[in-house]
Design goal:
The structure is a single chain. This protein has 388 residues and is α/β, with parallel strands linked by helices. It folds into two domains: 219 residues, TIM Barrel; 69 residues. Strands 1, 2, 3, 4, 5, 6, 7 and 8 form an eight-stranded parallel beta sheet that branches. Helix 1 runs parallel beside helix 12 and helix 12 runs antiparallel to helix 13. The longest helix has 25 residues.
Length: 388
């Protein structure tokens, strides 16, 4: 199955041949073009904590396009490694929100090394929390579990901001509501903000034109075109999920392996404002450091029962269903992208969105250990494939 998944990834990469906003183009070449645009002097690129710090001091410039760049690492850490590698090449350091209850382990192996590399290289590492969901919406228990998850991630990297994870499309309560009910919970845990609460609040207080772009659910948007058209003083907020983005050729570049890690700095590196009366901050540049690990493997994601300790990778009977869902989704996306490039059909784009949605729901069901629901979504994926 792993060989099949690698093959379908190669097929998918073969169809992505150009940088274009007119068709779905979740490729490294497109993202590289986006980063090249962001390197221009007209932009100020900030991670989440960098934006919050400047906003608190009323130092957000009005003579540049302010871009906030964030990634939610939901499923595939290896995909995130390559986006961070591309950003490092362009001297851009964004925020990566890491799950402690997701289908990967943060305490060992290349994921742990990568997180430490992010911190050393000027990126921000934050917690992608999901504790209300995992405690069946018990607010008291969720705060206790949140503290444990935060401490777990802080053993690997400094953390000063967090971001709510969406476990389901419609939850009884969003995970960030543990802070809306008691905002002092952030201060009690030595945090300066929550991405879904603090950032929009600061953006609204600026009273400027702002645009929020998200690829949630595999939704494609004309990222580059909208960015180029942005005006001075405008705020552009990007949320990208690395698991949707693929290498153009089906193969990732091969940076040097991560070398022995050292303890992370005591504070998260962020962009600092200018000290002049009329500040015009510039993007932070960081010293040369080792780049992410060598060519990542296609990872077999697993799921474990809910517990009071962070999840770690282990074998379980649901592994086959996860790989199957990944293979089906990748194969069908390859077919739909090929058709969209030939026909430029809106119907094909709609079909692709349905495919990505079913794949995401299947993985969420597996995470909850709901085998019946997972089988249902896998069957739906097979039907969508047959319809093609």
């Amino acid at each position: 199955m792993i060989r099949c998944l690698l093959l379908t990834s190669l097929v998918l990469g073969a169809f992505y041949a150009s940088v274009s906003d007119s068709t779905v183009n979740f490729t490294h070449s497109y993202y590289d073009a986006l980063l090249s645009e962001l390197e221009k002097p007209r932009y100020l690129v900030l991670n989440i904590s960098g934006f919050i710090r400047l906003a608190e001091k009323s130092q957000i410039p009005d003579n540049r396009v302010v871009v906030i760049l964030r990634h939610d690492v939901d499923l595939l850490p290896n995909a995130s490694m390559w986006l961070s590698y591309l950003e490092k090449r362009h001297n851009i350091t964004s925020t990566f929100y890491i799950r402690t209850r997701g289908p990967y382990s943060i305490s060992e192996g290349e994921v742990s090394q990568w997180i430490r590399w992010l911190s050393r290289s000027g990126f921000e590492v934050g917690l992608h929390h999901e504790d209300l969901y995992h405690t069946n919406y018990s607010f008291t228990e969720a705060v206790r579990l949140f503290r444990m998850d935060l401490e777990s991630l802080r053993r690997v990297s400094p953390v000063i901001t967090v971001c709510s994870h969406g476990n389901l499309q419609e939850q009884k309560y969003a995970n960030y509501e543990i802070f809306t009910r008691n905002y002092t919970t952030l201060q009690e845990h030595h945090l300066i903000g929550e991405a879904y609460i603090t950032v929009p609040s600061h953006i609204n207080s600026l009273k400027r034109i702002s645009t929020y772009f998200s690829d949630t659910g595999g939704t494609w948007k004309p990222w580059l075109t909208k960015l180029v058209r942005a005006q001075q003083g405008e705020v552009v907020y990007y949320l990208l999920h690395p698991n949707y983005w693929q290498s153009t050729t089906g193969r990732n570049p091969s940076p040097p392996p991560i070398q022995a890690t050292t303890p992370p700095p005591t504070q998260t590196p962020i962009h600092t404002p200018s000290q002049t009366p009329t500040p015009t901050p510039t993007p932070t540049t960081t010293p040369t450091t080792p780049l992410p690990a060598a060519k990542p493997k296609i990872e077999e994601t697993t799921s474990t029962p809910v517990s009071t300790s962070p999840m770690s990778r282990n074998d379980n009977p649901f592994e086959t269903y996860i790989i199957t869902a990944g293979i089906l989704a990748t194969s069908i996306v390859a077919i739909s992208v090929y058709a969209s490039r030939i026909k430029a059909s809106r119907v094909v784009h709609k079909k692709k969105r349905e495919i990505m949605k079913e794949c995401e729901l299947a993985l969420q069901s597996l995470e909850r250990r709901d085998l019946a629901s997972a089988r249902h979504h896998v069957a739906s994926l097979k039907k969508l494939k047959d319809d093609h």
